[in-house]
Amino acid sequence: MNTSPLSPVSYETRDDIALIRVNNPPVNALSHAVRVGLADAFDQFDKSADAKIAVILCEGRTFFAGADIKEFGKPIAEPWLPEQFSRIEALDKPVVSVLHGTALGGGLEFALATHWRIAMPGAKVGLPEVHLGILPGAGGTQRLPRLAGVEKALDMITSGRHVGAAEALEAGIVDEISDAADIETAGMDFARKILDQNKGVRRTGDLTVAGVSDGIFDEWRSKLSRKTRGQLSPLHCIEAVRAASELPIIEGLKREGELFKELMASSQREGLIHAFFIERQVGKLPELAGVAPRPTDHIGIIGGGTMGAGIATACLLSGVSITLVERDEAAADKAQDTIAGYLAASVKRGKLTAEKRSAILDGALNCVTDYSALSDVDMVIEAVFENMEVKKEVFAKLDALCKPGAVLATNTSYLDINEIAAVTSRPADVIGLHFFSPAHVMKLLEVVVPDATAPEVVATGFALAKRLRKIAVRAGVCDGFIGNRILAKYRTAADHMVLDGASPFQIDKVLTAFGFAMGPYEVADLAGLDIGWATRKRKRAEGMHPSARDFTYADKLCESGHFGQKTGAGYYVYEKGKRGGTPNPQVLELIEAERAEKGITPRDFTDAEIIRRYMGAMVNESANIVAEGIARRPLDVDMTLLAGYGFPRYHGGPMKYADIQGLASILADLEEFAQTDAWFWEPAQLIKDLVARGDDFASLNR
Ligand code: 3HC
Ligand code: NAI
After folding, report:
1. Residue 429 burial (10 A CB sphere; 0-12, 13-18, 19+)
2. Which pLDDT value is given to residue 211?
3. Are residues 239 and 363 in the same domain?
4. Do 340 and 464 have their domain in common?
5. How much of the chain, in percent, has pLDDT values that exceed 70?
6. Element spanning 221, H or E
7. Nearest 5°: phi and psi at 9?
């Protein structure tokens, strides 16, 4: 038995079987200490005269979930995984891996290098490195195609998807699904069988790669180049698998290593790993530690329009009962039909069975017109028109009839939730739950916390998000909270560029090439141009700042009935049955007329300047939001933009992007732009302070 109490790896021999156990909670990542422990254990096994076979298994919830991602970006200490795995494969005595939980990345690569693999029934395997901006760099791209064929390897490695035990067995990735009671019995029984049957070693690297057809790599390349929007890792994955099909294992591993190093050095790897960690950090708030949320089993929703129906669907799909209140019977029936339609679409996509849909519609959903039906609900989410008077009226009614302890939430996009809370006798129970449209699809939930809200009400917002499989971000109250307030700024930066000479189409093209799911004008067409029109009207009515640059070309589009996709034309013209639109020539005419009227001589914008201005405006407002405490940490801003605004995940979010660029260069851009528009481009004090002390946004996440 290995006696080092500090090592996460232990070694013992039972008769002629060596049992190597790893215990590195929570997910048995292959950290430096684990690699050192494994090297010792396999040395011992190699030298042992008694041990004829080794069984390797991991304690706790999973087999190795991969390399230790926390070590990335720093020099990685030896022993390195690729060499270690090749050494295990080359042993003269067989090694058996026992897979349970999620054998991912380096974890699966480890197993592929051992000679036999058995899986527990619930085990999943996968090579998810692509989502971290890298590729499987410890032999996965060379050994998986040898075991499962090129097509399967390309599918698994470029998608990163988790594959269940049955599929893994069918693909030849594992040799057996064990029906033993526990992993140790499974491993020991299997090892005994291998010894009894004298099966010995079986090296994956000795196999030839099957399933290589003409043009398969080019096909995958062209299929993925469109989908991945500039992300490097999927295409590098294809190259690595191509190498497996063309080279002997030793050279293939070398090529895999070169491609791996290129990706490790890329900023995309930094951005994607940042995204991985902040997704797990965003819900960890000191104020919520140890605070128990209130129940969310029965929720009332007020208003069954675009948002109310979507929120109801999201809740119903997660087992929450819904009582939805509308203004009249017709509206209640319409809401019921919309929700039934969304649920039918879920059945079509295989997310819900037809029986479950019927059960929900018969029992869990109740669309009514009488507010008294809400007297016993755990929580209410209000989604009526965006109008303060209407919302106040609704909250006064809720205050009068909801049971004590019910959480009263509003889905307002912009309104002051403190003002809404003040009409109730229980402001501690009032909170903003800002869902995004379509609410049953979009991942983001801004949990907007007014001054008097109780911690357990905030915890309830986070718990509901988790239940709905959404990502919750804590936001403070201000006009637009985190996301929409930042959006307003970068949209304005784009609008200014259009006034000054760029076309909306150039801007959309540049930003989609940068990695955004859509450009701002495509988004405007999708959301409906009437929304921006209403905002401009509101701002004019409130009295705009003298330095704000107003424009009316987009109003004119609306005045002629063009609201974007829903009317068939906006910035783009949409033909029925075709995906996407073509630039609407009327837009350029309207813009040119407005420039002439305002005496603006249009100038050219390079693609690089468009990005500098768009990102500059975004980063600057993000910094203000953090400084004001609307977002507690830069990572909250990053998560908001990633989960709700189509920000390219491989840039990590605006604040991570700024850190990667260097805050000094962002500040220099802001100062340059401020020379012609000092009001709009005034650099955030926080950026100035961080640059002065040589710090970055990341320092505020710690
Ligand atoms: N390295 C370091 N830490 C890791 C980790 C890893 N590979 N995987 C998970 N963790 C950490 C998480 O950050 C989290 O830490 P926290 O508690 O401090 O927030 C903790 O482990 C638990 O993780 P989750 O909250 O995600 O737990 P779940 O049970 O929901 O999910 C999981 C478990 C499915 C294993 C999920 O964590 C996961 O997908 N992990 C990443 C798997 C992965 O990408 N592996 C490939 C790594 S790269 C590689 O192997 C390179 C190789 O090819 C050379
Ligand atoms: P909508 O106009 O589609 O739906 C509002 C619904 O509320 C209508 O069906 C209406 O009949 C009902 N209603 C109005 N007054 C009511 C009352 N007193 N009692 C019961 N029902 C009443 O509006 P939408 O888009 O769903 O927006 C609702 C709220 O969600 C607004 O506050 C909006 O700002 C916010 N929001 C909207 C988003 C969007 O993309 N549409 C995104 C995020 C938030």
Report:
1. buried
2. 76
3. no
4. yes
5. 99
6. helix 216-228
7. -115, 130
What is the Å distance from ligand 2's center to 277 Cα? 34
Give me the pLDDT at residue 3, please: 47
Catalytic residue check, 589: no
> 352: domain CATH number?
3.40.50.720
Threshold 0.70, pTM exceeds: yes
- What are the DSSP calls for 401-447, one per residue? HSPTT-EEEE--SSS-HHHHHTTSS-GGGEEEEEE-SSTTT--EEEE
Given this model, what pLDDT does residue 504 score?
98
Residue 107 Cα to ligand 1 midpoint, Å, equals: 11
Q: Is residue 408 part of a domain?
A: yes
Q: Is the CB of 666 under 6 A from ligand 2?
A: no
How does the average pLDDT of the chain come out, rounded?
A: 96
The length of the chain in residues reads 702
* pLDDT tens-digit series, residues 545-594: 989 999 999 999 999 999 999 999 999 999 988 888 999 999 999 999 99
Q: Return the closest-CA partner of residue 468 out of 515, 495, 492, 433.
A: 433
Examine residue 278 and state whether it is found in any structural domain, yes or no: no
Which ligand lies nearest the alpha carbon of 469? 1
Check if the beta carbon of residue 156 is closer than 8 Å to that of residue 128.
Answer: no
Q: Is the CB of residue 302 below 6 angstroms from any atom belonging to ligand 1?
A: no
CATH number, domain with residue 585: 1.10.1040.50
Flag whether 422 is in a domain: yes
Amino acid identity of residue 503, one-letter, is S
For residue range 280-327, list pLDDT tens digits in order: 999 999 999 999 999 999 999 999 999 999 999 999 999 999 999 999
Label residue 202 exposed, middle or buried (CB < 10 Å: 0-12, 13-18, 19+): middle
Q: What is the 3-state secondary structure (H, E, C) of 207-218?
A: CCCCCCCCCHHH
| Catalytic residue chosen out of the listed positions 71, 83, 89, 129 | 129
Question: Can you read off the two tokens belonging to residue 315?
Answer: 């809740």
Residue 242 belongs to domain with CATH number: 3.90.226.10
* Cα distance between the two ends of the chain: 40
Other Cβ atoms less than 10 A from the Cβ of 459: the count is 21
| Beta strand segments in 401-508, E | 407-410, 430-435, 444-449, 471-476
pLDDT at 377: 98
Q: Is 109 a catalytic residue?
A: yes
Report whether residue 69 contacts ligand 1, using a CB cutoff of 6 Å: yes
Q: Are 16 and 113 in the same domain? A: yes
Between CA 701 and CA 622 the distance in angstroms is 14
- Ligand 1 centre to CA of 87 (Å) is 25
Cβ atoms < 10 Å from Cβ of 559: 10
* 426 neighbors 450 (Cβ within 8 angstroms): no
On whether residue 698 sits in a domain, the answer given is no
Q: Which ligand is closest to the CA of 417, given by its number? A: 2
Q: How many domains does the chain have?
A: 3
Residue 249 has pLDDT above 70, yes or no: yes
Domain that holds residue 558: 520-602
| Cβ(67) – ligand 1 distance below 6 Å | yes
Distance 29 CA to ligand 1 centre (A): 7
The closest residue, in CA terms, to atom 36 on ligand 1 is: 65
Atom of ligand 2 minimally distant from the CA of 328 = 11
Unique residue bearing structure tokens 């690569």? 109
Token pair listed for 107: 């974890």
Q: Are residues 213 and 353 in the same domain?
A: no
pLDDT, tens only, 328-376: 999 999 999 999 999 999 999 999 999 999 999 999 999 999 999 999 9
* E-state strands within 335-457: 365-368, 379-382, 407-410, 430-435, 444-449
209-239, pLDDT tens digit by residue? 987 888 999 999 999 988 888 999 999 999 9
- The tokens of 681 are what? 């481009």
* Amino acid, res. 696: D
Q: Where are the beta strands (DSSP E) in 121-201?
A: 124-126, 163-164, 176-177
